Sequence to fold (174 residues):
Amino acid sequence: MVQLSVGGIVLGKNPIVKSVQTVTGTMGSNINITPVNPNHSALSLNGMSYGDNNIGGDDLYLWCDFSLLNGSVVATSAPSSRAGTFSCEVVEYYPGVIKSIQTGAISSDTTITPVEPNKSALTCLSNHTKLNEATLFKDGDYYYGPRMDLLNGSVINFTSAVAGASNYQVVEFF
Fold:
């Protein structure tokens, strides 16, 4: 019989995921969750929506950054009359699954503590959007961002049409 293992944990015999919490809320809020060990937990953004598409001809910058802090999912957003909602997940793993977690703010290519790329996941924990009603869907003036790529295990390549920092998370597994 062949046994598959990750980080010394035999799959199918020992559990890997301790808990999964799906969180929904309003941008600009802190949502309390069941406490997790932040050294064994990963946060992922499932999506967001804004309630009002009428932007009145002016540029509108919509953004929301997510982080896991002291047992809460923190959703920081720009002041706006356009109420928005979000959905994200917090996955807590048992010890021995996650080797390291790195989080931070990024506004240009950034060097991180090296990780093994084939065992690591980069997650963007922000959404920055620029809308201009006068040219919406014209001349490329409809932006989504940011875009992040993990290069060679030590550099995050960052591209965004909207200026400003965004949050990232790199989870390296055993």
Q: What stands out?
A: The two ends are 23 Å apart (CA to CA). The CA atoms of residues 98 and 173 lie 4 Å apart.
